[in-house]
Design a protein that fits this description.
The structure holds 3 protein chains of 3 kinds. Chain B is mostly helical. Helix content of chain B is about 80%, strand content about 0%. Chain B has helices at about 5-20, 30-60, 75-90, 90-95, 100-125, 130-150, 155-165, 175-195, 195-200, 205-210, 215-235, 245-255, 260-285, 290-314. In chain B, helix 1 (about 5-20) packs parallel to helix 13 and helix 5 (about 100-125) runs antiparallel to helix 11. By secondary structure, chain C is α/β, with parallel strands linked by helices. In chain C, helix 3 runs parallel beside helix 6. Classes of the chains: A mainly alpha, B mainly alpha, C alpha/beta.
Amino acid sequence: MRQETGTEGSDRIRVARTRALRIGLPLLALVSVLSLFIGVIDLGPRDLIQDPEALRLIALSRWPRTAAALITGASLAVAGTLMQMLVRNRFVEPMTAGTGQGAALGILAVTFLLPTAPLFAKMAVASATALVSSLVFLAIVRRLPPTQPLLIPLVGLVYGGVLGAVVTFIAYQVDLLQYVGVWMSGEFSGVLRGRYELLWIAALVAGLAYLAADQFAIVGMGRTVSVNLGLNYGQVVLIGLVAISVVTALTVVTIGMIPFVGLVVPNIVARLWGDNLRLTLPVTALMGAGLVLVSDMLGRILRAPYEIPVGTVFGIVGAALFLWLLYRAPRHG
Amino acid sequence: MAERRLIPTAGLLLVAAVLYMTLGAGGNWGFVLPFRGAKLVALLLVGVAISTSTVLFQTITRNRILTPSIMGFDALYVLLLTGVVYGFGGQAYLDLPPQVLFLFNVVLLVGASLLLFGTLLGRAQGDLMRLILTGIIFGTLFSSVTGFFQRLIDPNEFAIVQVSSYARFTRIETDLLAIASLLVAGCLIVAWRLRHQLDVLALGPKAAVNLGVDPRRGQLVVLTLIAVLVSVSTALVGPVVFLGLLVVSLAHLVTPSAHHAVILPAAAMISAIVLVAGQTIMERVLSLATPLSVVVDFVGGLVFLGLLLKGLRR
Amino acid sequence: MIRVDGLSYRIGEQHILSDISLDLPRGGISALVGPNGAGKSTLLSLIARLIPIQTGRITVDDLVVGQCASDILARKLAILPQSDDIAPRLTVRELIGFGRFPHHKGRPGVDDRRKVDAAIEAFDLEPLQHRPLDTLSGGQRQRSLIAMAFAQDTDYLLLDEPLNNLDIAASRSLMARLRDLAEVNNRSIVVVLHDLNFACGYADFLVALTAGRIGAMGPPSTVVTSQMVAKVFGTKAPVIRVGDRPLVQV
């Protein structure tokens, strides 16, 4: 009898999660299809049959843009979750705690020193600097007293601000401010076929991270618990940081920084479904993809034919959601 | 003991000011002195406004690492400004004298921050974590809404807003100097008269009640002062994120005193020194293109991190 | 058997443990007692490889701590650390589920699920199993954490001051459960205790540490005397006997 209730109960979370996926996935598919038909050039479903140009437009611009938004949202949300587990604090995210600024610093350095380097090499440098800056952040965090959790997001903010100031300073001096503007504020309007494909690596990395979901969840419980359960703590932390850095660097270089996704989405998911990453990471990715895509679509619609950058729209949507969450939403369980 | 250190600090400020006025002037005093004088006054006003608002804010939140800027005060100012421009249309707005506009914005910010932060401080009493988080999110929310409005308004009208959206020290709105000086002076007088009550407020609401100071009333008065001071500094030079954090931390280091009678002037002078000396070095010595605010953010952030880690090791 | 051989540990110039050698028997409850700062928690953490060994050698059965792979030791030995630093939002059941990680490495099977059920049952956590940890009382949390260590299904179970923050009823019921685990499930339990009387009441073997050295070692009934209390704890307290168990009068 007891066995029965136990099994049934463990399924309850699973059922709730499955329901979230079952409602979320078709919804996401629907929104993605809608996204294909929103843009400066009028395009209706009927045109697909009548107008050969329509398919070209979709292949060249609309689908790449939609895919980029989906991948960015999903992988940033996953990266945010990983960061929160590694730092053991709910209120940090790569884009504000130095990882994004580190990536921008790296790409700025390559652009200035080796302007002819292939994109892939630039990416590698940006990922490396992102990794170094997250390692430094982690080293600082480890020295903060655990009794003051609110210090961590503040320190992250200041640390990110310092790195950002370095980026701005260098950009001013070597006259690359325009590039920095592109990296620092995320926008999907420039996404075309051939210009976003690197993002698929971010998708792959986020997918690979799911394989180690349990390990990351355990690391989130602290070093002692990890060691007790036989985990190589340092190794998991390093793998996590590499994943975060690659995702962040790829996003910064191809799209630009979109703050807040990595903060808001993991927090919503944790509040509603908890921290069992094996169960929740797919929901996190789904929600991140959906929110970013919807924000981008709103940005395309609201002031058509002009666009509002996705970061701005998400800043409003995400902040409103987060405040609601902070003051109202029930806790998980 | 701590009070004595105020005198060399004042001396240092004087030196910085003199250097700012005279360095590289090239003998054309008739032009240089009034021109630089106006900018010097502006820098002093901004420095004092930022340091005082930060000290006051740290007193009512009883936290040494918060500043009005981190909590989104200046983002709120820029948002209100943008909202007004969007609401009234730029031209009608431009036709008014700048002083009237400025006063209007000050009143708006005072109202909005009393409403927002007043209720927040009341509700989040004891839940500092939630308060800070809300503040940080407010900052993002305000600047996102501002960005949103800015996309909606005319590029010509946008120019009005842009002046206040980015920190800059080279071009300063000099036609607001007189009214800004009056406002800052008023705030300083009020803060100075409240200095002993502020010492009590810093002990926390329970201790304050016990010592006969109404914490709620104190909070509202202080919030009003902060809103006015933030309006002044943002209107003159735009948002400077980490200056408050930097100078107040330095002030606590230079004059380790819990008394507002010491810490207020110390922070104000250090803040003025940082701005005046920093601007002198950037403009006259290094001839750098980078705005001072970037350097202040960099140095301020580093000093903050350093102080934090050093303080913990002790 | 846990064998500690010539173990020393120091932080800077401060000697925490000095040349400790002891054998903790297989089976039963072994209690580590001693005054504050005697090095009890350090010894336990060294055995559980939570901190690296500086000098000396520790073996758990045939495994050498520090040399054998961490995940193999995780199937042999589990520790309940003193600091309660579990922050994530997990339900009791999810938390206990992670105790099975050393066995399934991320792919739980039927057997893992059964072990989790057994742990929940053994610690009376059925009504709480779907509650998030942060909604539990201190005692309930403590029970969940011990259940997690239990689900790890190791021969050795190490607990660092598990009675902290528990009232007398909860303390007694926890100790009775540990007795059960030792006798029925044939686990070897090593527990750091603050209260010497709890050690006298429930332990089979007792190690008293004082200033980083062993002050006394053996079954409580022979070891605990008023001389030993004076030597180890530095206080003169009479020791009386209730049945075959000693009792320190406070």
